[in-house]
Amino acid sequence: MAGSSRSGGNRTSSDDNFPIDGLPAKPANWGRDEGAVWAQLLRQIPAELLRRVDAFQLKILCELVVRETHLAAACRVDPLSTAMTRSHLQTAQQIGRLSAMFGLSPIDRRRIRLEPTSEGDSVVSDLMDRLRGSV
Fold it and tell me: In the chain, what are the domain boundaries?
């Protein structure tokens, strides 16, 4: 939707006037979990969409995915904890907002007119499948 926080407009990767300057660099001193999510996302997001400046947003997205995994486990241990459930849902919403920037849902791929590249596991799809089963 135009004017909403999820909207990125209707653009294609060729409409990005920011210079193609390579892939974002993985943050140093990161845990194994965050690094694994980073690697998975870089395999899934077409390289022509990424710029080095995207490192900050990707870093936050990876950290949120790892946090969601821990919160989902905690919710399974204590499913009646409203605070834990609220935190889990808020984290999942933040992941949805950030992942939209990189075309990680069918609607977002259509919005930025991404062409399919290859089949693979999707971090965001896995998260959404877990959310459907745990909430």
Answer: 27-134
Residue 127 tokens, joined: 């998260």
User: What distance in Å separates the CA atoms of residue 86 and residue 118, rounded to the nearest whole number?
Assistant: 35
Give the gyration radius of the chain's Cα atoms: 16
Please, where are the H alpha helices in 5-54?
A: 32-44
Residue 54 · residue 24 · CB < 8 Å: yes
Read off the pLDDT of residues 1-34 as tens digits, 9 standing for 90 and up: 444 444 444 444 456 677 778 899 999 988 999 9
Cα–Cα nearest to 34, from 60, 56, 54, 55 = 60
Q: Which residue blocks in 45-104 are alpha helix, DSSP H?
A: 55-77, 82-100
- Distance (Å, rounded) from C-alpha 58 to C-alpha 110? 20
60's tokens: 């936050």
Task: Give yes or no for a contact between 108 and 100, defined as CB atoms under 8 angstroms apart.
Answer: yes
